[in-house]
Amino acid sequence: MTDKPTRRLVLKGAALGALAVPLRVFTAEAAAAPAADGIFGYGVASGDPTGDAVIIWTRATPPPAGGRIATPGSGLGRPVCVHWEVARDSDFRHMVKRGTVYTNASTDHTVKVDVTGLQPYTRYFYRFHAEGETSPVGRTQTAPDEAGHLHALRFGLVSCSNYTGGYFSAYRALGQRDDLDFVLHLGDYLYEYGNGADRSGPPELIGVRDHIPPTEILTLTDYRLRHALHKADPDAALAHRRHPWITIFDDHEVADNAWDSGAGNHTDATEGSFAARRRDAYRAYLEWMPFRLPEQRVVPHQGTRFFRKFTFGPLGDLSVIETRQNRSAQVNLPPFSTSGGGLIPLGVNPAADAQLADPARHLLEPEQLTWLKNNTADARPWHLIGNQVVLGPLRFPGAAVGVPPELTLINSDQWDGYQADQSALLTHLAAQASDTVVLTGDIHSSWAIDLPNSAGVEFVTPSVTSDGFYEIVRGRLPAGTPPEALVTATRVLEGALRAANPNVKFLDGVGHGYTLIDVTPERVQADYHHTPLPTSAMPNPVAVQTTTTAYLRSWQTLAGSRKVTAATGPVGARSDNPA
Questions:
Q1: Per-residue pLDDT of the chain (579 residues; tens, 9 = 90+)
Q2: How far apart are the C-alpha atoms of 137 and 514, rounded to whole Å?
Q3: What is the SS3 assignment for 270?
Q4: How far apart are CA 511 and CA 534, in angstroms?
């Protein structure tokens, strides 16, 4: 034993003033704790793989100076020289790329390298060195994008990972898989809420799995700390270390139900400029995520261009769209919705109905919609669209959502709230020779949907942890209602929604988890992997750290069918593997 204070003790006593807790309990100090664990306490990540390049990422925390640790967002710490290496083997005997970069407090000491000149459909290993320390070894791979060569394509699909909502068992399950080309995260990677009245998630995790900062995040320091909290999570760290990720933000990376100049969860009078808040949120996102900004001049756009395209040889492509930065404000109809949109009835207010149909209102800026149409007009067999909010028309019967039964509602924050853009895109997709599969998150439940007029299909992934239909039902029924009865009530709600929407072929509002997407020339299949059903023995599976996800059910769309059909079982072995 030594009397010399360790970096972690200095952090706990001086930087955060946190309560004494076991070293590896991820509680109130979780976001900043890895800064005391050496140079590379936040691990490594990779992302945005193309056929010849991939982003590699880490944070290089400089050694403490004068007892002060450069925790995320602190602005502390001297510049650090970081050496990076990429090899074909995990022992780094067959080195293919190496280099040196510098990082400092202006980028929160994050490091992001675009490693180019790689071979397509090839697995690589990477690591960083600085100040006499070496990072964990990350595993990544380039995209199966090789002209004239048809390769397998398989990836994990996730969305909506609220830290206080539960443990990231879906990330752990993805990190344990060896058959993925990448993980596609469709938004709400983090949530802006605090630990007070705005907190969501199982009550038994209060004081165990808390947000940091403990209040709603508003500033650049806040957003950096919240990102650090997620990188500190061991399940997220595993999934980032084992696979490249393709990501795009939705609303909670800034504030709930955001639009071009505001958000449902933002008040200028008390929280300052929304434009400044969004600028800081985007900056932290680009610092802390393995995200490659596309070339800003090649494609017309408004603001910062975040939307981008990935190709997979002769098999297909993936267009990742961005639906928040330039969207028109959502339609509201008090008392149903007052800011940021929500469930509003159709046919009761002509002015609201006219707004919903107004061609001057946009979800995507017109330039991005044109780009997306052009992408889906080429000759590739499969066009995948990574999309934040549900594209297919959905109608919510009043009785199912607790309003007068004669009402039919739509969610004005989804594409249904921008009917001109929705109709234009669906009409375009229906006229194309190739097949389109839309991949969606946001709604915290699992869906398989036929799009109108044979425009394609839509697979919606469940949330990793964020409250879904089951949690909504639990909040409406008397306290103490057994979980088994809550599941039954949720199934009734699902049945009402399916009856009102014949285009919905599958809906599960109970499970959290991920979706495995597998693409072959013959079909695209979606395997849903969920957490266990809540029971009296385990009322909140996401609140149990050892919970695992398990295969539930498969749906597919066959080439040329443009319809959802049931698959006979989960996907098998890949047809080929990366070099």
A1: 333 323 322 232 223 222 222 222 223 355 677 777 789 999 999 999 999 999 999 999 999 888 888 999 999 999 999 999 999 999 999 999 999 999 999 999 999 999 999 999 999 999 999 999 999 999 999 999 999 999 999 999 999 999 999 999 999 999 999 999 999 999 999 999 999 999 999 999 999 999 999 999 999 999 999 999 999 999 999 999 999 999 999 999 999 999 999 999 999 999 999 999 999 999 999 999 999 999 998 999 999 999 999 999 999 999 999 999 999 999 999 999 999 999 999 999 999 999 999 999 999 999 999 999 999 998 899 999 999 999 999 999 999 999 999 999 999 999 999 999 999 999 999 999 999 999 999 999 999 999 999 999 999 999 999 999 999 999 999 999 999 999 999 999 999 999 999 999 999 999 999 999 999 999 999 999 999 999 999 999 999 999 999 999 999 999 999 999 999 999 999 999 999
A2: 25
A3: helix
A4: 9
Q: Which of 326, 375, 333 is nearest to 356 (CA)?
A: 333
Rg (CA), the chain: 23
Question: Which amino acid, 229?
Answer: L
pTM above 0.90, yes or no: yes
* Domains of the chain with bracketed CATH: 7-141 (2.60.40.380), 153-566 (3.60.21.70)
Q: How far is CA 400 from the centre of its chain?
A: 28
Residue identified by tokens 């949690």 is 471
Tokens representing residue 475 in the block? 């909040």
- φ, ψ dihedrals at 139, nearest 5°: -115, 135
Rounded Cα distance, 322 and 386, in Å: 9
Instruction: Return all residues near 17 (Cβ < 8 A) that are at least 6 apart.
Output: none
Strand positions, DSSP E, 218-300: 244-247, 258-259, 262-263
Structural tokens at position 77: 């710490």
| 548: its two tokens | 């695992």
Q: Measured between alpha carbons, how far is 532 from 410 in angstroms, rounded to an integer? A: 30
CA dist., res. 267 & res. 256, Å (int): 12
**CA contacts within 13 A on the Cβ side of 574:** 18
CA of 516: how far to CAs of 54, 143, 406, 554, in Å?
A: 22, 17, 38, 9
Cis before 213 (ω within 30): yes
Q: Which two tokens stand for residue 371?
A: 């780009």
**What residues contact 88, with CB distance under 8 A and at least 6 apart?**
94, 96, 122, 123, 124, 125
Question: Contact, 218 vs 271, CB < 8 A?
Answer: yes
- Burial grade of 359 (CB within 10 A; 0-12, 13-18, 19 or more): exposed
Name the residue with tokens 């003033």. 17
Is the preceding omega at residue 335 within 30 degrees of 0, hence cis?
yes
Q: Which residues contact 165 (CB under 8 A, 6 or more apart)?
A: 191, 200, 201, 202, 463, 464, 465, 466, 467, 542
Q: Is the CA virtual torsion 227, 301, 369, 142 positive or negative? A: negative
- Look at residue 216 and give its three-state secondary structure: coil
The DSSP code sequence of 14-69 is III-PPP--TT--STTTTTGGGGS-TTTT-EEEE---SS-EEEEEE-PPPPBTTB-
Q: Which long-range contacts (CB under 8 A, 24 or more apart) does 452-455 make?
A: 452/392, 452/393, 452/426, 452/503, 453/426, 453/427, 454/430, 454/562, 454/563, 455/426, 455/427, 455/429, 455/430, 455/562
